């Protein structure tokens, strides 16, 4: 297993990139700790596969170095990197049986047949395909083939890292949960360095110790699910994670007071002079309706979503969403919104400003 270091890494698919916009992956420095499970989260096209393929060696970066445990592998072929990678769509040998497909990576590495048989049995149990071991892969459903791909990715214990690129896309919803649980237990058992790419926040937050959020070719935050929730480093993280996402409101900030459309909002921290576009960000969980104080809003709609209510309001053209308890009563005179000052984040040009303890 390995620690993976990305040193000044960047990639453009153009031969002569001219500006930052030409880079699918903008400059990145990051260390993936040995034995940690990471989710790489971001919307389609933000550069997740590009980054993963650079780590596995399928793609050579236009700039920078990749180190496995301090050894430079930037120019090493995929095979030399000793990595297992599972792709979004199945990659299986159709003419081979399920058993031979699963055994392939082990035989390739010259493991003895007794070990191969044992390990294949174990993996078949994990992916729920013990009964199909002697069937040819040809003719199996896409779902079953993808389970074989996953199994092949998990079969070797001696890999440097396991990389998964949206591996559950073609898997049915029930089995998704089951396989994700298996991947997690595999991680607990063997402690592989794992990188799991997904565009699904639930998948990312339930799978990983740390979530790496990408936006437009850039890593915008690396944090625990709690950090992403409480202190989104970029407004994108605020919108993308959470349901509904963080409320973002244009503001002027001075010291520990924000002014939004003439109303004052108390902040939990103090701020110096901020340049550019200034906004405050508050998660719906830290906002509540009030009859007496707070920002004057129009209540548009109340959605009952079972465990809680989502109250949709509008404040001078900006949406402000509130999450309230399922038994909260909403009186006709409750047309103000109050924020918990400790959970109001301040953003300048979309990046969170740390501020100072008040
Ligand atoms: P993701 O996996 O997050 O959906 P990708 O890494 O596949 O994103 O793509 C990032 C960007 O690079 C996208 O704008 C995509 O169109 C572009 N891109 C991906 N692969 C290639 C390629 N082989 N040639 C040119 N552009 C590419
Ligand atoms: Mg992709």
Automatic annotation (TrEMBL):
Keyword field: ATP-binding, Cell membrane, Membrane, Nucleotide-binding, Transport
Signal peptide: none
SUPFAM superfamilies: MOP-like, P-loop containing nucleoside triphosphate hydrolases
Name of one Pfam family that matches: ABC_tran
InterPro entries in the cross-refs: AAA+_ATPase, ABC_transporter-like_ATP-bd, ABC_transpr_FbpC, ABC_transpr_MalK/UgpC-like, Mo/tungstate-bd_C_term_dom, NA-bd_OB-fold, OB_MalK-like, P-loop_NTPase
Occurrences of domain ABC transporter (ranges): 4-241
Statement: the UniProt record of this protein carries the keyword Nucleotide-binding: yes
Source taxon at top rank: Bacteria
A GO term, aspect molecular function: ATP binding
Family as reported in the entry's similarity comment: Belongs to the ABC transporter superfamily.
Protein name: ABC transporter ATP-binding protein
